[in-house]
C-alpha cells in the first residue's frame, strides 16, 4: 500500500502488540489488508522428496560418486536459499543412490 499523503510505500510496524502500517511522513493506518509478499526457503528435510519412479525421469550427468566411483548421476536443482541466491544442484548416484550437493 502507498501513503495517501506523500505516495511512499507504507511499512508494517508494531507497537505494544498492535500492528499498523506507517510512512516516514508520519501517516499511519490500521488497515492491514492488501497484497503480501512471502518467501519460502527449503529446509534440508524438504530435499529428499524424490521417489524411485520420479528419479528415473530426472536428467543424468557425468559426475563421480565419492562412495562407489560410479561416473553417472541424476541431478536436480532446488532453491535452498533466498531468491537472489543461486540454486543448489543435487546429484544422486545411478548405482548406489548416494546423494550429494554440487556448489560449482
What features would you highlight for this structure?
104 residues; N-terminal domain of TfIIb; 2 domains; four-stranded antiparallel sheet; 2 helices
Provide a concise account of the structure shown.
This protein has helices spanning 44-47, 52-55, and strands at 11-15, 18-22, 28-29, 60-62, 72-78, 88-93, 99-102. It is rod-shaped and about 65 Å long. The chain has a 4-stranded antiparallel beta sheet, with no helix packed on it. Strands 1-2-3 form a 3-stranded antiparallel beta sheet, with no helix packed on it.
Describe the protein:
With 104 residues, the chain is mainly β. It folds into two domains: 1-37, N-terminal domain of TfIIb (Single Sheet), CATH 2.20.25; 44-102, Single Sheet (N-terminal domain of TfIIb). The chain is 8% helix and 31% strand. β2 and β3 form a beta hairpin. The model has no long low-confidence stretch (mean pLDDT 82).
Strand content: 25-35%
Q: Compute the CA-based radius of gyration.
A: 23 Å
Order of strands, main sheet, comes to 4-5-6-7
Outline type: rod-shaped
CATH architecture of the largest domain: Single Sheet
Largest sheet: 4 strands, antiparallel
Give helix % range. under 10%
Any chance you could write out the topology, listing elements then pairs?
Layout: E1 11-15, E2 18-22, E3 28-29, H1 44-47, H2 52-55, E4 60-62, E5 72-78, E6 88-93, E7 99-102
Amino acid at each position: 500500500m502507498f501513503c495517501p499523503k506523500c505516495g511512499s510505500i507504507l511499512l508494517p510496524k508494531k507497537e505494544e502488540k498492535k500492528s499498523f502500517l506507517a510512512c516516514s511522513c508520519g501517516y499511519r493506518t490500521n488497515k492491514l489488508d492488501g497484497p503480501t509478499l512471502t518467501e519460502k526457503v527449503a529446509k534440508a528435510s524438504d530435499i529428499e522428496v524424490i521417489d524411485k519412479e520420479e528419479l528415473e525421469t530426472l536428467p543424468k550427468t557425468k559426475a563421480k560418486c565419492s562412495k562407489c566411483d560410479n561416473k553417472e548421476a541424476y541431478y536436480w536443482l532446488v532453491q535452498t536459499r533466498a531468491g537472489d541466491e543461486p540454486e543448489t544442484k543435487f546429484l544422486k548416484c545411478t548405482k548406489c543412490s548416494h546423494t550429494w550437493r554440487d556448489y560449482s
